[in-house]
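Lab notes, practical 5.
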Amino acid sequence: SVCLMHSFWLLVLLSSTLLCVVAGPLSLPTLRPHFPVPPSSRQVQHGLLPHAYHYETKWLKQVLDHFSFTTPEVTFQQRYLINKDHHVPGGPVFFYTGNEGNIEWFAANSGFVWEAAVEFHALIVFAEHRFYGQTLPFGPTLRPETLVHLTSEQALADFAVLVEHLKATLPDVRHSAFIAVGGSYGGMLAAWARIKFPHIFDGALAASAPILQFGDLVPPTAFNDIVTRDFTLPSESCSGSIRRSWSTLLEAARTETGRKEASAALGLCTPMTSDADVNAVVGWLYDGWTYEAMVDYPYPADFLQPLPAWPVRESCHYFSGTAEGIGLLREVHQAIGVFYNHTGEAPCFNVSSGHTSPDLDALAWDYQACTEMVMPMESNGVHDMFWASAWNATAYAEGCLRRWGTQARGSWAITNYGGRALHAASNIVFSNGELDPWRGGGVQESLSPSLIYVPIAEGAHHLDLRAAHPADPPSVVKARRIEKEAMRRWIQEAGVRQGIASEGVLQGQPIRPHREESVQEVCTSDLQCLGNTWM
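Output from the prediction step:
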């Protein structure tokens, strides 16, 4: 067989994708979806980010291995961003648990944190994840022998140590409530930070956090099913056209003439000449459709690429529902151009340019996906708009062993963080957009009065963490109100524990200890009613 490994220029890059073409008749490859990921760290510079906010960049010396007590200790410098503009003594701290990328990019795209900080008089911290962005313990070189220290457990310990450092060095936050906030992988870390360190983090907002996308906790088809639903909402002919396009492309790729015609129809800069080229185009198309579903925001945004409002709807406009053959591929060219070329600046699509010289952040995540972040995915070509591609744990593990010499532990995240067994957890809000493909791996019900699920009907990937916008649908406006009410409760409870009155911090909201009450007594707000749905 011929195997092509390509690393995507966008991250969540959940992991690099291994594409295998079996000798003989060309067949569609196995694909893995990815989280949305920041641009290359080399491209992100402070001050050039969209909607840049003001902050001070600081560094903290961290221990490389928090769980070893050998000497001498190996250390590295962790970067974090801090803003005190609206903080008052005793006010809360909003602590963003950094994702798999440059922390400045996440700071620029988390307007909710900045806006809530004004209301709560909060100090803001964005902490960068080890081995990502500029927090590189061994510099710009990633080797298996040093990456053994790249785990979510070590990153959570970094965050906990940073909180302790802030409390020790900033008198105004010594007794403050610390609220963990994160989206996507960062949302997973926020929830796990509260679970692992409840004495350090008083609550957590986990937006679009697929903490259940492990083992057999959720169906492995969930992600691709939701992508398909997104492209079916504007018109069934839209998802149906995309489903038919794969076999159309495959049929054309059987001959040299067909490949040339298909390449021209798709607007490729370089014609497909091999099975590997065909698989690269298939992967590029798959990325475009799935990323577009993740960032299907109700207003123009440049989270991953410059995109119009409701980009999925815009793409679907180009499908007639009746086109066949090369005509269908021409419609695909126009539709996928909404994601890859909305500005119209690209004269053609250079598919290979996105799959060379992988970024360090992408490589680091591939390592994590080959150790503890093993998230099963598959499609069936019946209930989704893709093709039959079953999850193969053995092949996945073999690929990880070849690339990194690691043993992928598919159940470790469940053992380590509990999976669905969250009965001992508290003070976490899980939010998911109904349009977000990662919703399938997230918590989608309230589990207790303090483990709250907030659905966002018109929301894509952590829309609630973005800045408020005039085009925000009512569901995200309501979600943010619920989230802030939960944060206010956590801050009040922390104040009671500390014996500190914080009426001024909470703009006159009285502090009262949480007590068990009847549904009739407490169901007086969105947050409380949602919390009671578990009963």
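Observations recorded by the TA: The chain has a mean pLDDT of 87. The radius of gyration is 23 Å.
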